[in-house]
Amino acid sequence: MNRQGWGLQAYAIFYLLFLYAPIILLPLFAFNSGTIIAFPLQGITTDWFAQMWADATLRRALTNSLMIAVSASILSTCFGIFAARASTRFGFPGKGGIMAFIMLPMVLPEIIVAMSLLVVLLGMGVQLSLLTVIAGHTLICMPYAIAVLSTAFSSLDRSLEEAAYDLGETKWGAFRLVTLPLVMPGIISALLISFTISLDEFIIAFFLAGNEPTLPTYIFSQLRFPRAIPVIMALGTVLVVLSIVLLALGEYFRRRGNARIGGKPTGGLL
Amino acid sequence: MARPRLDSEARAGLSLIAPPFLYALVILAAPLMTILAYSFLTDGYLEVLPEGTLQNYGQVLTDPIVRAVMLRSLIVAAVVTFATVVTAFPIAYYVSFMVRPERKAMWLFLITIPFWTSYLIRVFLWKVILGYNGVVNSSLTGLGIIDEPLTFILYNVNAIVITLAHAYAPFAILPIFVALEKIDRSLLEAGRDLGESRLMTFWRVTLPLAMPGVIAATLIVFIPTIGDYVTPEVIGGGKIPMIANMIQVQMLALDNRPLGSALAVTAMVIVALVSALFLFLNRRFLKVRQ
Amino acid sequence: MTDKPMIQCHGVHKYYGDYHALRGIDLTIRSGEFFSLLGPSGCGKTTLLRTIAGFEDISDGAILIDQKRMDEVPANKRPTNMVFQSYAIFPHLTVAENVAFGLRRDPRGKAEKAAAVDEALAMVGLAGYGARSAHALSGGQRQRVALARALILKPKVLLLDEPLSALDRKMREQMQVELIKLQRQVGITFVLVTHDQEEALVMSDRIAVMFEGEIAQLDGPEALYARPATRRVADFIGVMNFLPAQVISEAGGIVTAEVAGLGRVDLPATQISRANPEDEGPMVGFRPETMTLLGPGATHSQPRETNATIDEVVYYGDMTYYDLRLDGAARLDGKARTVRISMRNVFGRDVQEVGTRTRLAWSPGSLVLFR
């Protein structure tokens, strides 16, 4: 490698350090026995993890978040399958406008989605609950699910489905036996991405959940209390480990699915 | 034989798109229409009076506080976008051109992992890193480089910029990387073959071809940044609000929904204008190249 | 092959919006026939095939298969099966699962079905490949799996959409012969869509040449090659030389014409075809191999002889192409032109050189007048 190459490589490593700086700090403070989040570190402890485990509000927030994320990811992926199939397989009047409108939440500041939805819900007298959060999260996860699924659907040879139909299957049979298994890696990716987005989403959950805590709103409420921070660091550490495992798993399934249908392993989860 | 107005393909497509479209209509279009309507109504005490007015927009455009917040949001978003895209480009270039093909996926994986960890915690940790007794200051004082903790990185716009640039880094790297990957490598060899230096080849071939990715990255970073609510709240401690914080305060804390709505509509118009400008630039750029 | 009609198209029209893709197709394909639809891309041949398969509705007219109306019958209920251009092999299934795909609703038992699959695989030369994963196959093998998958259902008609276009040249020539043999063996009506005129000539009993949604000529391969019905068909199939001609007289179905470079010839009605609308006047055409280049002092039994100069020689190993300037070729319109003659290279016959004065032997029977 020439001099320019070395320069770039050094920059890349420096940049990765910048990207990972907060994440490297997480476990440091999570296992640090000092109650103040500052250097120098004191000693090693697992107390914060124990406290986290014993926190009933946190458990409630986690249950709520999981319920929301599971519902929102399934709903948005189902809607996504409809939209991705419609846009990759069929031509219909108004297609461009309809698709652009459905993808709009991707480029709309979340605060506007949250506020406008909140104003309407309050105006209609709807009780804020987990359901209202699920409704909002489904809306903002849908475009990401559609983006992932459209790639999966459009890389599918159209004549595969026609061949199944030609060989005597019904249209539904052709979809179930041929299309669905082939886009399954895309469906799993869409579920994972929607799940992750929903799990980490703060603004909509903050305004639409009423009194119910979710993981991000719980974290936000605790950040104000210096005493609670070490527990949040422990929670953050667990979340990082979990998301790395989840991502690696998703990547593994994607590659396996790819290998099974003879595709080339390219790109990342995004 | 009479041909039906919609053929079977159009009917199949429309019936498939109907569920997601109806959902977006109810959950997105209806609320947006409502705040658009609100923004032209008068704020009563604890209620919205059905009297049409342009006064809310008048206030948005003339009120010095609103103007200052709008301007701050625009400047922060512009600086964050610029910083993020400029620092992201070399990384995308490095991964696309210098990393061996079989290791590219791993690099992308490495770049995206931090993005999947809780946004709130990441933002908070930047506060820890940049704070008065934070990592940077305690290290620098510990090494004897500075005597007093640096304050210019603390609880101010600079801290917001650094935090947001970190949060949206993968969003900038990925589109640029995709655009660079699409460049036919023989074009670069052709450039070199025709006697251009490495730098000139980059300037005259690589950069123009990567431009669509750069513009996509700019938009992808700019739009969420200008509407960001969390970072000013956590880093700035609510003392340096941006547009999203102001919308929230008007809507909920002050219960002035018409003014809040007018702010939201104005923010959307700004986002739309900036997006349109960049898309126009992109199109012009592509046209020139053809 | 019998004379029983298997596929009948009556006045078939197809519109895509304002685009008129099929313009009144009338066509009868006989039972057991190897039939080809030949034409350039966009001529409507694939659309016609897909309307027969049931993938496209027709806008007007009627399609009958085995003398039953099919217009309203969906593709999965028609007695036709298709081999797709991309083969459409299901990548998530094994070879055997691919071949057995259409048997899912078959009431036969598992063992019987497995035997049918083995038999179908053996028929296409893939015995023992059943357990392999479909995406690991080569292009030629995929093609065979697609054939087995369609033929196992014993359709009345097998439709093939450009089945050989994805194969390399050697493989393509091998598969052409195998397809002919397979068709003879199973006796099913084959309808092949191709843009490759050579492929159509090699494989078909009859060929329909299509341009712009219409059938320009429907004939056997020899008739199509030797007596193209229009100048356009002649241009599309093989190489044909054209010389300007002038009609002198017409009597009793015989046209007497003066042909630049060839002199006066009498041509019966069977040797007269339609010119293109944009042609400036009548033209006489002939194939490169219908004339013989004579060596010095050579004799021949052809009725006519013409003098020429060799303008260019292209040597191909088995063949040599000569571009010739015929004496008097520019007499009618003043334009200089060459004609191409092909000669098989046989032992003892020298390749002639550029610039040589030479003689051509030919017969008026090999000419076609386009007017």
Automatic annotation (TrEMBL), chain A:
Keyword Transmembrane attached: yes
Keyword terms: Cell membrane, Membrane, Transmembrane, Transmembrane helix, Transport
Ranges where the ABC transmembrane type-1 domain occurs: 62-250
InterPro entries per record: Bact_Polyamine_Transport, MetI-like, MetI-like_sf
Gene Ontology cellular component annotations, sorted alphabetically: plasma membrane
Gene Ontology biological process terms from the UniProt entry: transmembrane transport
CDD domains named in the record: TM_PBP2
Main location: membrane
Transmembrane parts of this sequence: 12-41, 61-84, 96-122, 134-156, 177-208, 228-250
Subcellular location(s) per record: Cell membrane
One Pfam assignment: BPD_transp_1
Membrane topology classification: Multi-pass membrane protein
Entry similarity comment: Belongs to the binding-protein-dependent transport system permease family. CysTW subfamily.
Protein name stated in the entry: ABC transporter permease
Organism: Paracoccus gahaiensis
UniProtKB/TrEMBL annotation, chain B:
Topology term for the membrane: Multi-pass membrane protein
All residue ranges annotated as the ABC transmembrane type-1 domain in the record: 70-280
Top-level division of the source organism's lineage: Bacteria
Subcellular location, principal: membrane
A Pfam family recorded for this sequence: BPD_transp_1
Keyword tags: Cell membrane, Membrane, Transmembrane, Transmembrane helix, Transport
Coiled coil regions in record: none
Ranges annotated as spanning the membrane: 21-41, 74-95, 107-132, 152-180, 201-223, 259-281
Signal peptide span: none
SUPFAM superfamilies, sorted: MetI-like
GO biological process terms held by the UniProt record: transmembrane transport
CDD domains xref list: TM_PBP2
GO CC annotations, alphabetized: plasma membrane
Places the protein is found: Cell membrane
PANTHER family: INNER MEMBRANE ABC TRANSPORTER PERMEASE PROTEIN YDCU-RELATED (PTHR42929:SF1), INNER MEMBRANE ABC TRANSPORTER PERMEASE PROTEIN YDCU-RELATED-RELATED (PTHR42929)
Family: Belongs to the binding-protein-dependent transport system permease family. CysTW subfamily.
Name recorded for this polypeptide: ABC transporter permease
